[in-house]
Amino acid sequence: MRTYTNPVIPGSYPDPSICRVGEDYYLVTSSFEWFPGVPMFHSRDLVHWRQIGHVLDRPSQLDLDGVRPSGGIYAPTIRHHDGVFYMITTLMDEAGTFLVTADDPAGPWSDPVWLPALQGIDPSLFFDDDGRVWVTGTREKAKAAYSGETEIWLQELDRTTLAPIGEEHVIWEAVQRGAVWCESPHLYKVGGRYFLLTAEGGTADEHSVMVARADRVTGPYASNPRNPVLTHRHFGSRHAITSVGHADLVETPDGEWWAVLLAVRPYGGGRNLGRETFLTRVHWEDGWPLADLVAPEAPAPSQQEHRWPAEPLCDHFDAERLSPVWNLLRTPREPYWSLEGGRLRLRLRPETLAQRANPSLVARRQQHRDFAVHAALDFSPSAGECAGLVLVRDDDNHVLLVRTARGLQLVRRAGGRDELLASVRVPEGRLHLGVEARGQSYQARFAVRPGEWRDLGGPVDGRLLSPPPASGFTGAYVGMYASSNGHPSTAVAEFDWFEYQPLC
């Protein structure tokens, strides 16, 4: 029997939403303070996914100026109807809910249509077979008995303008007494009945998936007596896969049902990989959907296996544009990077990684517990300037391996305070930089001549890069960085190549 391995999309890709068009599946996830926003994935077997771009790839679509860590874009939903793709999401702490449309999921996507009347988070679209369009979402109750007491609302949208019309309906709240954050509502119509899928318990170890059903879209909805239909909370925090929840359902052409969902693989006292995208089988019993426990390995969908060509481990920066694996921190308002002559050139600017700004940073997600990154840097710093590799959790917690006028420095920033861990003089010319992670041990390395690697300092405790279980929504990133640290500069740092290698 053919099997698959979870997670199907490793690294910080949480809150997955999925739709099927024929034999093709498209999936989006949250992106928070990182730009471009809402990564778009494509699969033909639910197991093997390739990233084909981002939904929000223009500054006109996404304003992340000054956004806090784990703010920004929350919980997108993707749907397809009458040849058009729809993505609806929330820009937290800013303008609220909006949607965009496209004829091709790879883009281009429209500029946002804002829906200011819709309050809360986790919006989802539902296209009924009578032609009506509905949106659901979650918000805290106006008279909440406790912090995190929420309700699920339903609102009809005009089919042409997508503006809210008619009466709002509050259709659901938490199943478990005292449960927090009843959220991530998705509606489906199966066998003439309406099914409402939600999560509750928060996005940490108490996470769970609930389901209710009704004969009318506006309710009343009845709870499945077997709720929760999926959770790992009874396994405890030391289980290999925790925090299971925030699911979306999809039916295959063969009539199988599957759920994509977020979960966490904790290790070594941390959650550096963040919340990742997992897959599990769904079966129907007594008119209700029930999900299998999320396993590291399980029998694969019956569809024919479809693998995509393997991506190179090393980026030589010889394409016309950055690969979609790369991200920037907040919205870029000026071009500070370029691809020229097979190199990535980063212009030094005053902004730093310690500010809620858009620094000269090009980074990608850490996707494996054990991994190594290497890069070749050409840079001649003046006083106050730096460039090199970085490991990033947020503004107040990160690690710099950077060339400065004083030499190569390893700097840890923890809780907003910087500490110089190690420093060494290096000659002018090309410098090779690297970091090797084994669990929570991150070892910085450098080489003046290719292959002659030396450790810089001792291993850094990687738990610095682990987000808090319930409030840090992004995992660790690793990338290339350059800064003039508050001073004007015309300098440029050049990276000839960057390699990310999983270590088995």
Question: How is this structure best described in words?
Answer:
- The protein is mainly beta.
- It has no helices and 40 strands.
- The chain has two domains: 225 residues, 5 Propeller (Tachylectin-2, Chain A), CATH 2.115.10; 189 residues, Jelly Rolls, CATH 2.60.120.200.
- Helices cover 0% and strands 50% of the residues.
- Strands 25, 27, 28, 30, 35, 36, 37, 38 and 40 form a nine-stranded antiparallel β-sheet that branches. It has a six-stranded antiparallel β-sheet with strand order 29-39-31-32-33-34, with no helix packed on it.
- A hairpin with a 2-residue loop joins β27 and β28.
- The chain is globular, with a radius of gyration of 23 Å.
- The model has no long low-confidence stretch (mean pLDDT 97).
From the structure above, extract its key features.
single chain; 504 residues; Tachylectin-2, Chain A; Jelly Rolls; 2 domains; six-stranded antiparallel sheet; hydrolase
Question: Treating each run of at least 4 consecutive H or I residues as one helix, how many helices?
Answer: 0
Counting structural domains, the number is 2
Tell me the distance between the termini.
24 Å
Strand fraction: over 45%
So, CATH architecture of the largest domain? Answer: 5 Propeller
Helix/strand/pairing category: mainly beta
| CATH superfamily annotation of the largest domain | Glycosyl hydrolase domain, family 43
Pick out the low-confidence regions. Answer: none
DSSP E strands, number: 40
Look at the structure and give the CATH class of the largest domain.
Mainly Beta
Biggest sheet record: 9 strands, antiparallel
Q: Say what the CATH topology of the largest domain is.
A: Tachylectin-2, Chain A
Kindly report the average pLDDT value: 97
Share of residues in helices = under 10%
Sum up the overall morphology in one term: globular
